[in-house]
Amino acid sequence: MVGKWRRRTRKSRNIRNKRFNVWRSRLSWYGLPLLGLVIGTWATLRFSLLAPEPPANPENICEIFREHTVWYDYARASEEKWGTPIATQLAFVYYESSFRSHARPPRTRLWGLIPWKRPTTAYGYAQALDPAWGEYLVANDASWRTVRTDMQYALDFVGWYNHLSNRHLDIPFSAPRQLYLAYHEGRGGYARRSYEQKPAIQSLAQRVQNRAFRYDNQLKQCEAEFQCWRWYQFWPFCRADD
């Protein structure tokens, strides 16, 4: 009986080992492609399909933050870290992308008909160019999750870029027009005053400043709404002047 029991045990063990080897072989063939499919699906949902819609009323910063309250947190964090006022950050995004997460410059036309290359690599809420975005990623030790289509990182990028403009070009944070000229032309272009030959850019920079001041006046009337909106926040530990 003992010998018979041992043979059954050995046979059962062999069957389990055989099944294990079969599944291990299948996993080696299908595991990585399946993992890639899962990651790809997650990335699509995370960075594209689930991207928030542009605000219904982009003319009023209070309405923007009422619709996307977490954007206030992102802008506030960027201001505290880099110095650019919340209203100026939102004015930049308004004119750069109209609050569209995946905004790109329109393609040029080959022979006036065929869609061709895009004029620049600008992408995302802040329309950050590839070289500037790469510099930002390196300077801030960013992870693979740091993308231009996420408002959190777009606003942080705007704040970081303006911080460098303030440090290297001595542009005050209270001067949205000059900050935007440096943002659009690059710090080197601003130093060379390249914008003086571009009246359209000067006009755009003035509109950015006007909107920044308008947003700032609006925000003063409603900012208290966004100080204690999370369940774990309570007055007075989440005031704007803390």
From TrEMBL:
InterPro entries recorded: Lysozyme-like_dom_sf, SLT_4
Protein name stated in the entry: Lysozyme-like domain containing protein
Ranges of residues in domain Transglycosylase SLT: 51-222
